[in-house]
Design a protein that fits this description.
This protein is of the alpha+beta class. It is built from 2 helices and 3 strands, in the order H-H-E-E-E.
Length: 135
C-alpha cells in the first residue's frame, strides 16, 4: 500500500482470495442442500418401509393373496417424495418361497427383501431393505 492507496496487484490478489473463498462457500452450500434432500427422501423410504412391514406382518397371517395386496397398496411417506415398494423375495425359515407354498407349511421367521425406489429432484434411487418378520 502506498500513500495514494492500494496497488493494482494488491487489489487483484485480494479479489482472487475473495473469489476462491466464495466459491468454496458456494460448493459447501450446494452439497449441504443435496445432502438435505437425500436425507429427506431416505427418511420417507424408512417411514414407507415401516408401513409396509406392518402390512406384511398382518398379511402373513392370512396368506399369499393378502401378501400381494398389501404390497400393491400405495405407500404413505408424509412428504412429496414418490416411493414405490416392490417385493424381491419372501421366504420362510426353511428357504421356501411364501408365494408358492401353502400357508400351513410356512415356518417363521419370514425373510422378506423389499426394493424401495424413490425419486429425489435429480435422480431415482433404489434401496433394498431386508426384513425378518415373526408372526
Amino acid at each position: 500500500m502506498t500513500a495514494r492507496g492500494f496497488t493494482l496487484v494488491e487489489v487483484l490478489v485480494a479479489l482472487t482470495l475473495f473469489a476462491v473463498g466464495m466459491l468454496g462457500t458456494g460448493l459447501f452450500l450446494v452439497r449441504g442442500l443435496h445432502a438435505a434432500a437425500l436425507t429427506t427422501a431416505q427418511t420417507a423410504t424408512l417411514h414407507g418401509t415401516q408401513d409396509v412391514r406392518e402390512r406384511l406382518r398382518a398379511a402373513l397371517r392370512q396368506g399369499p393373496e393378502t401378501l400381494r395386496r398389501a404390497l400393491a397398496a400405495p405407500v404413505p411417506t408424509g412428504i412429496d417424495t414418490p416411493v414405490r415398494v416392490t417385493l424381491i423375495s419372501a421366504r420362510d425359515d426353511l428357504g421356501r418361497p411364501l408365494l408358492d407354498t401353502p400357508v400351513a407349511r410356512w415356518r417363521p421367521p419370514y425373510h422378506v427383501v423389499l426394493r424401495v425406489t424413490y425419486s429425489d429432484p435429480r435422480t431415482q434411487r433404489t434401496l433394498d431393505r431386508h426384513l425378518v418378520l415373526a408372526p
